[in-house]
Structure formats: C-alpha cells, structure tokens
Amino acid sequence: MPYPPKLERGAVIGDRYRVERVLGSGGMGRVYLASDAKLPGKWWAVKETMADTADYERIENEAKMLTRLRHRSLPQVADFFSPDAEGRVFLVMEYIEGSNLSDYASRAGGVLDIPFILELTLRICETLEYLHTQSPPIVFRDLKPGNVMIGEDGTIRLIDFGIARSANPDKNADTVKLGTIGFAAPEQYEGQSDPSSDQYALGAMLLYLSTAGRFSEWTPEAQRALRPDLPSALVPAIRRMLSYRREERYPHIRDIKRIIQPEPVEGEAPLTSGVGGTSTIAVLGNFQGCGATHIAVAAAHTLAREGGRTALVELGRTSGAFERIAMEWEGEPLRGRRMFSIRGVDYWPSAERGRLTDIFSRGYRYVVLDLGTCSDARDFEEFLRADAPVIVGSASEWRSGDLVAFAHRETLRARPKWTYVLPFAAEEAVREMRRRLGHKRIYSLPPLSNPFDGNLRDAFEPILGSLYTRKGRRSILKLVFR
C-alpha cells in the first residue's frame, strides 16, 4: 500500500503530542518534532512507522521493551501508540539536539581526530554492551553514522530504535530483514541477527570514519585507504569485526572495549572516569527509617563537591522528606515548585517516573535516586538500571534478618555491582554479613552528622569511588564543541 501523507503541523497524537515539523524521513517511516500538551516547553521525537497487521504484536512487545531501557547514551522511550486506522504506529522518544555523526564528519571534511574516534567508539561499545546484556539480549541492528547523535554538550546517543529487537535464539530468522546497506552484517540480509551483528556494524562505521567516508566493507582498497595515524591495534580489530562469518568476530563487545581502553593500572581511575554522560546512583532502603534518604543526600553532596552537576530525586513518593528539607533551608514550603537547590545539588521532590526523562535530559553528571523502600515494582527497575545500586540495611540482631531475606529473594536479579551499606556497623558485623550474603561489597558508614557538607569522600570512597570525577580529565567529545 502507498505510504500515507505526512501528518500536518498541529496534528495531535494520543491527545498529548502536537506535531510541529518533520525531522526526517526514511524507508521505515518518518520522525516528527512534537511539543507536549502536559509538559509545556518539553519536546519529543515521534517515530511514525507503517505496520502490517501480522507485525502488530511484535512491534508492541518491542516498544514495551524499549520503554524499560535506561542508559545515558540511549534516548528514553516514553510512549507508544498502537496502529491507527491507516496502520501507523507511533513511538515517542526523547528529542536530542545536536547533529548526527554523518553530518558532523562531513563538516570536518571526513577527517576526525583520532582521540575523538576512540572515545566515541568506547561510548558506543558501552551502550551496545548494555543492550546485549539485557535478558533477552537486545540487538540494535542499524548502527551507522546517521544514527549516532552528538549532543551540543558533547554527549552521544544512539537514535532510531525503529528496528531494534530482542534476540531469540530459538528463531532461525528475524521477522523482517532490516539494516542499512554498507553497515548491516551479511546475516541480516538473510533475515538473521544477533549481538555480533551490531559488532559488524561498529566495525563498518569505524572503517568508514578511518577512510574519510570512502569504505565500510573490508577490501584491499579499503586497507590501503586507512589513515596512517590510526593506532596499530585498531586495524586488525576492525578487520576481525568485519568478518563475514559470525564465529570469527570477537566473542563479546567488551573485547573491543579492552582494545580501545586496556584495563587500568591498579589504584588508578579508569580512563572513562568522569567522562561525559550521566551516572546514576540508586539508594534503596531495606526498611522504613533505615536512613536511606540521609545517605542519598550525603552521597549527592559528596559527588557534587567532586565536580559536575548533580540531581537528587525523591522518586514517586509523598513522604515529605524533601519538603521538610526545603523548609529547613529556605524557611518556606515549596508551593508546587518542582525543584529547589542546595549547595550545588538540585532536589526533585516526589518526582514521578515519567519525569525522569526530563531530569536525565538536563545534562547532569550525577543523578542520585532516593527510592525509599521501593514499594513500587516499576521503581525497582530504576534500581536495577543504576550504575551504582546501593541497598541500605542494618547489621543489628533484630534487623539483619530483613536484609538477608531481601538478598535471598532477589538472588536471580542480584548483580556483583550491588553495594550494601550498614550504617554504624562494627567491622565484625560487616564481615559476618559478607559471610551470610556471600557478597563482598558490604560496607559500614560512620555517623554522617551533616549530610550537606559534601566533605565525605573518605566515607563514600569504597561505595562510590568508581564514579568520582578524575581531576584534570576532560571529555574529548566535549572539547570538540569548545
């Protein structure tokens, strides 16, 4: 059937999103810039795609999958609308201002700085690793320069999730054969894809950037066209990533990360420590009154003192803790204000999950989520996505059983990066809890008499040390926009 005419300016989708103009068009559909009737001043990118009746269920399931993702290099998917009378589906995503990598490279004459290419590749690897470690793994399937957005603040995002899908090892073929010629892996033309297909596309994009946009497939001519200042270790890596046979590529995307950035020397911060993007710290209390909010406040001010804009979000609760903090510092109630600031930390009281997209889009270096006891299962998803998930409990005789019960209940979802904090616990109690939980990342915290001080690095070093900004290090991606 012919593609229906584009939506006119002023058309409203879902009684909320007003079309302002077309951002782009392609074989898969169109993307519109839309304003938000419920959040004045908020802009969205709305992806419109034609769907066959047989694909309705698949598209809806994959849209729901995308709304659960949260990573600093992925635009948040906020809404989805089932097919209308003409068979069009709409995916509402965070709008990213900036330019795509294809346009940026063209303006630079096709020759980009090597540090820029390496850091860009590292960020993309981190994002693909996040997607590939979902359960089931998510394959992006259309990685190319046009789908990599460089924000005006130097952040990068992978955009256009129109064809991303979960990898199903039980299926011999994808429902549809998708990808972009020149960047899609050979198996995609046969209707098959898995995480290694994204690796091929990354190799094609690296080759494209390393040959001033002349080649995206490994050939003798492409090898001769490689720029001479390319790091020697990267040349065989690109060739291996572009292997036609999937089993000849790297086993995991993290193997490519190690080539771009070798493991740091013990005691040194990782190369990416403090590099652009948002790091999320989620603080969950094991029981009411355990001090989770107190610790979240202290962590936020400690990170803010280290450098970088910091937000502290009271997620989806009406406990009034942030309201009381505002009264203490400002001497008056919030009166409907959505945010207030104390010593370089922006406080967001009783924020609903739907507002997280807006908060994450504001360019914060750190976002600390105060989850309380996390009674809402959807809020627990934010804990699972966080870069630093922190559980606050107690080692006391009458409370330690609660923490053990929580750990056993969440065994299947537990991750090595989870950190347990036991305020005021003695070292012997910490050792005992490590034994009972079979988990090393359990620490005590001394009394934090003034959580707003920010001078608590020593106390939080074991808990948040990997997130501290490395002094003197600036993002290569941000430097190019100076």
Task: Describe the overall structure.
The protein folds into three domains: 12-94, Phosphorylase Kinase, domain 1 (2-Layer Sandwich); 98-260, Transferase(Phosphotransferase) domain 1 (Transferase(Phosphotransferase), domain 1); 279-477, Rossmann fold, CATH 3.40.50. The chain contains 15 helices and 19 strands. The protein has helices at 56-67, 101-107, 114-132, 195-210, 220-225, 234-241, 253-260, 292-306, 321-330, 356-360, 377-385, 400-409, 427-437, 457-464, 476-479; strands at residues 12-13, 17-26, 29-36, 43-50, 77-81, 88-94, 98-100, 138-139, 148-151, 156-158, 165-166, 279-285, 310-315, 340-342, 345-351, 366-370, 388-392, 419-423, 442-445. The strands form four sheets. The protein has an eight-stranded mixed beta sheet, with helices on both faces. A six-stranded antiparallel beta sheet has the order 1-2-3-4-6-5, with helices on one face. Helix 12 (400-409) links the parallel strand 17 and strand 18 (419-423). Helix 3 runs antiparallel to helix 4 and helix 3 (114-132) packs antiparallel against helix 7. The longest helix is centred in the first third of the chain and has 19 residues, at 114-132. The protein is globular. Mean pLDDT is 81; it is low at 168-179, 263-276 and 469-482.
